[in-house]
Amino acid sequence: MFKKRENVAAIEEGKLLSPKFDKDGLIPVVTTDCKTGEVLMHSYMNAEALKKTIESKEAYYWSRSRKSVWHKGEVSGFIQKVIEIRIDDDQDSIWMSVDIGNGASCHVGYKSCFYRSMPLGKVENFEKVEMEFKEKKKRFDPNIVYKNKTNPTKI
Amino acid sequence: MFKKRENVAAIEEGKLLSPKFDKDGLIPVVTTDCKTGEVLMHSYMNAEALKKTIESKEAYYWSRSRKSVWHKGEVSGFIQKVIEIRIDDDQDSIWMSVDIGNGASCHVGYKSCFYRSMPLGKVENFEKVEMEFKEKKKRFDPNIVYKNKTNPTKI
Question: What DSSP line would sit under B93-134, residue for residue?
Fold first, then answer.
């Protein structure tokens, strides 16, 4: 489907796309905001999601909770327009830069899934590390947008 | 070691750090340049690497090829000074913003591991997708810096 991975030099220094999918058929994807550089999400694609994303220029992912390809925004309306897709040295992870307009990317309601920051420095007790909320206000109410949908977060 | 994961509300909306490590004991980490927002690396930490990173404010990772905790820069000298660490909604991935000065993050010699960009739009043949090099020049010669070290890239 994609170029077969045959040697390290071609994978690292070549021009042909030869992504490595893990034993579950997935590749991790980092999605950033094209305007601010913020990391919006960390997620996964299978080969089909990657192909659909490249061809449609809209983000498709693999949902590990629903076990299916997922067109980002199909429920919330928060489509991600793809501006650029890069792959790393050994072609086993993807960086995608997207335009979300004034939308949001996090199912909890925030713009970015990464809305909490940890304190740095010596820690007395790792069971009590208190983080700071970097986003103060949700962009949407998930109880309205995702009404009757199962929360993908698992303990 | 960290706060036990007990309920979804606390994981998503709480302040306490309760990272989820996968069945191999790892959590994926996205590392970005604090000055430009570029994604530099996608890698993994185990609990020990995360603790060392928080306390020392220098990046430690888990090397899946060497199966050990790895102080980034211990061979190359390209230490990453940690500016901020965030965690995502379900606390199963990390975003770390770092200062690398004029250094580099990629074992192939580039500043970012994500030095190649794919073309977007209709694809005739997915076996022949030709990427563009976005970094034109390596920042160091890996044959000198990593002399006698095994290349971590696997087919």
Answer: -EEEEEE-TT----TTSSSSS--EE---S--S-GGG-B-EES
Residue of B3, B34, B105, B126 to mutate, testing the A interface (most A Cβ within 10 Å of its Cβ): B126
3-class DSSP state of B138: coil
CATH topology of domain A8-145: Ubiquitin-like (UB roll) (3.10.20)
ipTM of the complex: 0.95
Joined tokens for residue B78 = 């390209």
Distance separating alpha carbons of residues B47 and B36, to the nearest angstrom: 28
Which residues in A lie closer than 8 A to residue B125 (C-beta atoms)? none
Confidence of residue A117 (pLDDT cuts 50, 70, 90): very high
The domain B19-143: what is its CATH number?
3.10.20.810
User: Most A CBs within 10 Å: which of B41, B65, B91, B153, as the mutation test of the A interface?
Assistant: B153
CA-based angle A57:A61:A63, to the nearest 5? 160
Q: Do A123 and B51 touch (CB under 8 A)?
A: yes
Tell me which residue of B50, B154, B142 sits closest to B93, measured CA to CA: B50
Q: Using one digit for the tens of pLDDT, what is the confidence trace for B75-134?
A: 889 999 999 999 999 999 999 999 999 999 999 999 999 999 999 999 999 999 999 999
Q: What is the pTM of this model?
A: 0.96
